[in-house]
């Protein structure tokens, strides 16, 4: 802008200088012409007086030098000319100044000579005898005068041009400085130029609009960040060149990586697994692609969808889901279905075989009670298995499995001790109940199932002559029940699996069991908000501890 103002001021200055020069030269030329004409008139009157007095003698002897004098008669014939021979000159009757003099007594004219590039001025006076005396003089044209004065004019023009350059630069800087100093964030504070008021109002209006848009954009970005950062799912947006445009922390967590080292880094720097690359490449090719990625014990589902703009793929959105629990549940469901089928098949096969033998008349009357006992035993086992499956299903579904009450663990343990006395005697295992009253809030049936299954397992997996010690205590952290046995123990690699459905540590000690006891303990404790811990040593026994939440008035579920 400074350069433009500078050029404009300089152009105006030069134009004004040139205009002034032309005007001054024109005025001076007109002024000099009028002076020359006045002098010429005076000189002509002087010559005319001399001719009136002395006639031709004055023209030939007393005529002053420097001017051209022509004397013509009343018909325009040249009688005398001090520059040319009178006989060689043509008739002057039609000359403007001669004609005017003959008519009015005086005449003047000015004629331009292209050859001499000068103007000739003429002045004529009619004498008393009817003849006319004309005196002429030359005057150079404007351009000749300018050329003659070129050196001083050029010097003056140069000085004027330098002055114009300096003034144009100074003025342009002074004009632009207040404009450059305008605070665009607060244009109202500047009032240097009234002419800028409309511009400043427009800037102020645009500032307000930009501020509103920035606030909306900031709020939208904060909302987007809040949403994506609180998502458990991973979220990434990439462009056609696989550069990461945005992402959330869950994406980094699920991809087991850190934040991109630099802005616009390729998504492949975050994960280079073939399945992940296949998803990204498929989305950038315009296809919605899904892939399962498995690593260690985790499973992630990657869903990549293309983002189109004007009919072409501009990038992709990649969503990463943690489906580990889902896959584990699906795996457990498959294993559970297979185990249930196997466990149900065994007693049903035994019942069916025994019934077929009896129906075929192959059983002696004396052996019928024995075979009937087998059917009864297998049917009881089948019913127990079905009951345990129903209990687990109810606990899994989280439905209403009974009313919540305040339960005394010690009283429950005493009742279960009586129920398992016969089984303990059969295994030659001694039982001991220690502790005292300890109140918990829970469903009595579930509390009973937890104690019964822990105690029953301690007897079933014990050694002959072993012991089971059940201790009930009331602690500040909540009531605890500990079931310790002197049995076979659990290997370290099996301690995480003993709570799985149908899992048995030792098949030889599982006759008559369903393999669901500890699963019921785990799910029942979770339903009541209790925790289960296990300590075991091979050949020396195991200790299960269940810790219930402390009892308070707010613990009663609705």
Overview of the molecule:
The chain is α+β, with helices and mostly antiparallel strands and 558 residues long. The protein has four domains: 2-148, PAS domain (Beta-Lactamase), CATH 3.30.450.20; 231-319, 2-Layer Sandwich (Beta-Lactamase), CATH 3.30.450; 327-392, Signal transduction histidine kinase, dimerisation/phosphotransfer (DHp) domain (Helix Hairpins), CATH 1.10.287; 403-555, Heat Shock Protein 90, CATH 3.30.565. Helix content is 48%, strand content 22%. The strands form four sheets. The protein has a five-stranded antiparallel β-sheet. A hairpin with a 2-residue loop joins strand 9 and strand 10 (312-322). Helix 1 runs antiparallel to helix 5 (150-180) and helix 11 (409-419) crosses helix 13. The longest helix has 53 residues, at 2-54. It is rod-shaped and about 200 Å long. Mean pLDDT is 79; it is low at 508-512 and 554-558.
SSE map:
Elements: H1 2-54, H2 56-62, E1 68-72, E2 78-81, H3 96-104, E3 106-113, E4 118-126, E5 132-140, H4 142-148, H5 150-180, H6 197-229, E6 234-239, E7 244-247, H7 249-254, H8 274-284, E8 289-295, E9 298-309, E10 312-322, H9 324-359, H10 368-397, E11 405-408, H11 409-419, H12 421-426, E12 430-435, E13 439-442, H13 444-460, E14 467-475, E15 478-485, H14 517-528, E16 531-537, E17 541-547
